Amino acid sequence: MLLEALNIKKMYGDRVIIDIDKIQIHDNERIGIVGKNGAGKTTLLNILTKNIKPDEGIVRNLGSIAYITQMDEGIENTKSGGEKTILKIREAFSKRAQLLFADEPTSNLDTNKISWVENEFKKYKGAIVLISHDRGLLDNLCTKIWDVEEGKLQEYRGNYSSYIHQKEERLECQKHKYEQYINEKIRLEESIKDRKERASKIKKAPSRMGNSESRLHKYKKSIKQTKLQNASKSIESRLEKLTKVEKPKEYKNVKFDILESNKIHSKIIIDTTVYSETIVRTILARLLFNGHDINKKVEILSGGERVKVAFAKIFLSDINMLVIDEPTNYLDIESIEALEDLLIDYEGTVLFVSHDRNFVKKVADKVIIIENEELKDKDKINKGIVSFAEEKEEILKLEFKISETISRLSMPSPKEDIEKLDREYKYLLNRLNEIRNKIK
């Protein structure tokens, strides 16, 4: 075991950010952390790496640690976002730590660099715990998913796709239990009503009864009423317990604008838009700001939440064209999907730069690729960027296999089949040339 955390709790003001009983990380695990913006994912990493102290609980690090942070502290501003990310990754890899933490390691990277990061992570000799909105990376790399929600951590075995399937099953099970609770609640309420009606109908003793008969009648009546009252209390007690059952939650499968930190974010938008408060709240709701989230001050918003507020301001501006640079950076997966739907419904023109393959596939109807200082126009998304990105990824894999095969041919072991290796080398080389010619 490389790390253990017990009974960790972290609060900001009166809001509980993290409240987790137990975490363990073992050798060579590949763990992806998912959750809504503001759920506490980065806070959790900072606690586990001891960059911040929990209000309660202990963290035991039993192995060496490296941490690829989300922000760019200490890196010169002349470098691009992608160059800064690569520098941080190379520096972390050079430490050869037993446990590597990474917060959005593919942010600002192009498709080729994302593939490079994915391959390097796969080869890493140690455990990895990462936060990422890249669904492809979580699918191809992770063997376990941590879902952070309302301060709690739910663990799922398998990759991201497996997590989605398991979570849907768990939520369906919760829904079924909730429906059972509703049916039981209705049955008990009707039962209480029926028993009270029966109790009220118990007749008084007839006037011509003797004293002994009257006492007997009252005694029997008392027994009946006591039984009915006890039964009603029992049912009401069960009903009270049932009412405490929570309804299961539904699961939904830029340059930063200047935001004054001491103001409520929805008020900032209302003060700067020509649209009504109702429309402002509707846009914020579509970006997953609901309930008390609407009245949060900017200073307590997470990085992803600030991005969404900036988007809301842009959507509600008096413009008909959006130009966005890497819109999915710092957003959780659910927020990315909400942004996808919002951009698809947007009536104006959208020009965006993104290396999120799933996002591009869903939102764009025309794709321009820049390569070797030239523009390549791909009119149809499914035959354009997706196939192009997949082919570029395959080129990287083929080049790696060719290099490995050449190494084996130059220094063959006694057990190596040289002819087979030679045939494999020629096949890989031909395949590589085919793909390169195809995307020219």
UniProtKB/TrEMBL annotation:
InterPro entries: AAA+_ATPase, ABC_tran_Xtn, ABC_transporter-like_ATP-bd, ABC_transporter-like_CS, ABCF_ATPase, P-loop_NTPase. Residues 3-397 form the ABC transporter domain. One of its GO terms (molecular function) is ATP hydrolysis activity. Residues 164-198 form a coiled coil. SMART domains: AAA (SM00382). Keywords: ATP-binding, Coiled coil, Nucleotide-binding. It comes from the Bacteria. Gene3D superfamilies: P-loop containing nucleotide triphosphate hydrolases (3.40.50.300). This is ABC transporter ATP-binding protein. It comes from Hathewaya histolytica (Clostridium histolyticum).
